[in-house]
Amino acid sequence: MSDALEKAEAAAREAAQNTVNVEHIVAAVLAAQQAQRQPAPQHQCEHQHKPRRSAGEWLGIACAVCVGGVGIAFASLALAILGGTAAIVVLVLRSMWVDFQKRR
Questions:
Q1: What are the C-alpha distances in Å from 17 to residues 6, 21, 23, 25?
Q2: CA angle, 96 then 100 then 104, to 5°
Q3: Domain that includes residue 20, residue range
Q4: Using CA atoms, how far apart are residues 53 and 31, in angstroms rounded to an integer?
């Protein structure tokens, strides 16, 4: 009977070892399934994108550029008139100076 008892004990040890091995295999399979279910995280940009300008904003910018261009044109015209006037004044004063020098 002790031979049967030893065989039973050996079988019980082997069954216990098989149970531990089966538990490890099941845990590995479950972990693999869980990894397959979760999609890999997609790469996302870390910087902030600026919102694009609307048509109204572009229209406002275009109007501002036009008004600025007209202002620059009038300023240039005013400088040209001022330069011409200054040249005439200088010529008149020079002519007066020459006449004044001749009278002396």
A1: 16, 6, 10, 13
A2: 170
A3: 1-36
A4: 49
Q: For residue 90, give both structure tokens.
A: 């200088």
- Alpha carbon distance 51, 65 (integer Å): 22
Structure confidence by residue, pLDDT tens digits, 21-72: 878 888 888 888 877 776 666 777 778 878 888 999 999 999 999 999 999 9
Sequence-ordered list of residues with C-beta below 8 angstroms from that of 61, at least 6 positions apart, any chain: 53
Q: Where are the alpha helices (DSSP H) in the chain?
A: 2-37, 55-103
Q: Is residue 48 part of a domain?
A: no
In a domain, residue 94? The reply is: yes
Q: Do 100 and 65 share a structural domain? A: yes
Answering whether pTM is above 0.90, one says: no
- Of 29, 9, 27, the C-alpha closest to 17 is 9
Q: In this structure, is residue 46 part of a structural domain?
A: no
Q: Is the residue at 32 inside a domain?
A: yes
User: What is the number of structural domains in the chain?
Assistant: 2
